[in-house]
Amino acid sequence: MAEITATNSNKGGKRSTRKNTKVDLTPMVDLGFLLITFFVFTTTMSMTNAMGMVTPKEDTIVETPIAESTVITVLPAANNNLYYYEGKESSNLKMTDYSATGIRKILVDKKKRVEANGKDAILIIKPSKFSNFKNVVNIIDESKICIYKRYFLDKASLEDELKIQ
Asked: How far, in Å, CA of 123 to CA of 72, rounded?
């Protein structure tokens, strides 16, 4: 608690009384640690950030006609390589990387060409057994950066996997 002590000082013949206050801060420190402990235990440290994905039910197959000129297909491969082709046929397979001058430039150019015709660009991502999860997430991130409204995840065919080995 607080303690008050009185001292007499006799300077120059006058008698004066000085009162010194001394406050014991031990209970205040205890209260501070209790509050800190309470807030540490009741606070959520960090929330996980996950991108939502809409997936269809297993038994629902919807076939939507899509113009070949609006589609670009991306095939993540081993060693952070990335292959892509436009349209339906994979005969004109090209290789690029995950940089801003690589796949991002290609996706932006494709989107500009398709939107000039008044349509939406469509991105198809076909991960293979050679790609890893990080590569697929990077492609989905690029689709969000390039503002692709429609992108699909599909299984890579055996023909595609043989071409990207």
From this structure: 5
Q: Kindly list the structural domains of the chain, giving each domain's residue range(s) and its CATH number in brackets, ordered by start.
A: 2-42 (no CATH), 68-164 (3.30.420)
How many angstroms separate the CA atoms of 153 and 125, rounded? Answer: 5
pLDDT at residue 117 above 90? Answer: no
H or E segment at 34? helix 26-42
DSSP secondary structure string for all residues of 58-125: TT--------GGGEEEEEE-GGG-EEEEESS-GGG-EEE-SSIIIIIHHHHHHHHHHHHTT---EEEE
**Using the 8-state DSSP alphabet, how is residue 12 labeled?**
T
User: What confidence tier does 157 reach under pLDDT thresholds 50, 70, 90?
Assistant: confident
Q: Identify the DSSP state of 155.
A: P
Determine whether 82 is exposed, middle or buried from the number of CB atoms within 10 Å of its CB (0-12, 13-18, 19+).
Answer: buried
CA distances from 18 to 9, 10, 11, 65 (A): 7, 11, 12, 95
Q: How far is CA 134 from the centre of its chain?
A: 12
